[in-house]
Amino acid sequence: MSATEPKSRPPRPFMLSGVSMRDLLASCAAAEAVSTPPRLPDPATVAEPPMEHPKAA
Length: 57
What we know:
Blueprint: E1 15-16, E2 19-20, H1 21-35
Antiparallel strand pairs: 1-2
C-alpha cells in the first residue's frame, strides 16, 4: 500500500455512504416542508368581515 492510498476503516453502523442519520432526517424534514402545500385557515379562527357603517351625508 502506498502512502497516497486511503487506509481502510471498518464501516460505522450509524453512517451509510458518508451521510449521517441526522443529516438524512434533516433532509427528509426539509423536503416534506417544501413539498407540502400551506394549510387552509381554520374557519373558526377567521374573523368575520367588519360591518359597514353608513356613510355620513
